[in-house]
TrEMBL record:
This is FeS assembly SUF system protein. Signal peptide: none annotated. Residues 11-83 form the MIP18 family-like domain. It comes from the Bacteria. Pfam families: FeS_assembly_P (PF01883). PANTHER family: FE-S PROTEIN MATURATION AUXILIARY FACTOR YITW (PTHR42831). It comes from Wenyingzhuangia marina. Gene3D superfamilies: Fe-S cluster assembly (FSCA) (3.30.300.130).
Length: 106
């Protein structure tokens, strides 16, 4: 897989992530800054490093599964794995300008 293909697949993954919303906040998980990294290897396996707004988040069980399922549904991806981390801890500073505007923080 060449660099252009990798970038194209990465963009498709980001577009999928932008369709997934935190149920308590009307902003998608990508704009919220919950996605720390997206990696795709030559075997078309995706690994997503993400966090939650808090370790006690009510969707701690379901949100990572939803991310895995939706990324796996892309025809360019063979498998997807989501790794949850709380290092660094999520803060409102990690939100995009668009998310801050949407939530009235700007």
């Amino acid at each position: 897989m060449n660099h252009e293909e990798t970038v194209e697949i990465g963009d498709k993954i980001v577009n999928v992530l932008k369709t997934i919303y935190d149920p308590e906040i009307p902003v998608d998980i990508y704009e919220l800054g919950l996605i720390y990294d997206v990696l795709v290897n030559d075997q078309k396996q995706a690994k997503i490093l993400m966090t939650l707004t808090s370790p006690n988040c009510p969707v701690a069980e379901t949100l990572p599964k939803e991310v895995e399922e939706k990324v796996c549904a892309l025809e360019e991806i063979e498998s997807a794995e989501v790794e949850l981390t709380f290092d660094p801890t999520w803060t409102q500073d990690m939100m995009s300008e668009e998310a801050k505007l949407e939530l009235g923080f700007l």
